[in-house]
Amino acid sequence: MNITKKINYLSVTIALLAFAACQNNSTMSTTSDSTTTETDSSVNTSLIPLSKNFHSTFDGKQTNLYVLKNGNMQVAVTNYGARIVSIVVPDKNGNPTDVAVGHDNVDDYTKGGDTYFGAIVGRYGNRIAKGKFKLDGTEYTLATNNGQNSLHGGKKGFSRQVWDAQQLNDSTLQLTYVSKDGEEGYPGNLTSKVTYTVMSNNKLKIDYEASTDKNTVLNLTNHCYFNLNGQGSGTILNHNVMINADRYTPVDSTLIPTGKLETVKGTPFDFTTPKTIGERVNDTANQQLKFGHGYDHNYVLNSKGNINEKAAEVTGDQSGIVMDVYTLQPGLQFYIGNFMDGSHALKQGKKDDFRTAFCMETQHYPDSPNQPNFPSTELKPGQQYQSTTIYAFSVKK
Ligand code: BGC
């Protein structure tokens, strides 16, 4: 090889190495028991944050980033709060698009305000009035963290705990958290297991399991913020939404349900036929929209726990990405980022500006432990809690 050929050969090698580094900043994902799983280098992982940015210690436990994949879909999850960090799916032109709001390092999650980006929330997702409920004649007092109410499990909840993680294969991650008797005021040692599976055809399945040693209440959900045009890419008000629900649970000014199941017919809450989020969000005459500062309400799903019946469908106006929601849960909290304020740094240098993401938290109705007419959220020793939600992605051209 002469000197010019040698230099050319060298520069091609360097360029290839640099390209590979950009394409895949995390070819190895490490599990907490320090076994390693190789990711497929043929998949473009450049939208997934660096794994090393998630290697830290919190409460004496190691945090990590796990990358799951199947076909054209990739999902990154950290065991800090069992949080979804990224969901990468193709848009209508086949371009990989990250539709989940998140940070690119674990410090932003541990230090950030209570946004609950991508988190599993528990022991009780959503609000419990005045942080109190009665079970078997005993009154329990919870940590209050949302005015006078308890929200998403209290001060720390499950979203600020480091879960034990085990990557079962390329597409499956299992996370476990044991919540001690009395934690945040809840009775019973509760073991929760959450399994994320990236299925074929761009579906993300979340399985929840739990068991307790004392009578308790629970409401586990995932709090992923979605922008189907790509996280940080502007308003979600032009996303098209269908929610398969004829009724919803109206709230008081502190967002606690009144106990009524009211029809959506003739109100801005009617998404039984698809419309944009923005179409009626500024209906100033609607008191419920005032209380929620926009949509921040629980829908009573017509699917009633039938996972084969669609609970909701959302389409990104620019990307053509469609997300269908299927669930075993009776309710869905539709929240449109009314409290997003641009104060948090997101992946790819983006910010969490006002209403640039929405959540579809599949769950039991808020404040169920205090609402005798709502489906029960009690769990007893010997019972196995089981629930599943699927977010299925596709495209409309
Ligand atoms: C609640 C909102 C809250 C948001 C972030 C949603 O589930 O309904 O009211 O601001 O979570 O905490």
Distance between the termini: 51 Å
The kinds of small molecule bound in this structure are: beta-D-glucopyranose
- Helix tally equals 3
Report the β-strand fraction as a percent range.
Answer: 35-45%
The overall strand count is 31
Helix share of residues? under 10%
Give the name of the CATH architecture: Distorted Sandwich
Mean of residue pLDDT values: 91
Q: Main beta sheet: strand number and arrangement? A: 9 strands, antiparallel
Strand arrangement within the widest β-sheet reads 14-15-16-17-31-27-26-21-24
Q: Report the principal-axis shape.
A: globular
Identify the CATH class.
Answer: Mainly Beta
CA-atom Rg in angstroms: 22 Å
Number of domains: 1
Structural class by SSE content: mainly beta
List unreliable stretches of 5+ residues. Answer: 1-44
Can you tell me the CATH topology? Beta-galactosidase, Chain A, domain 5
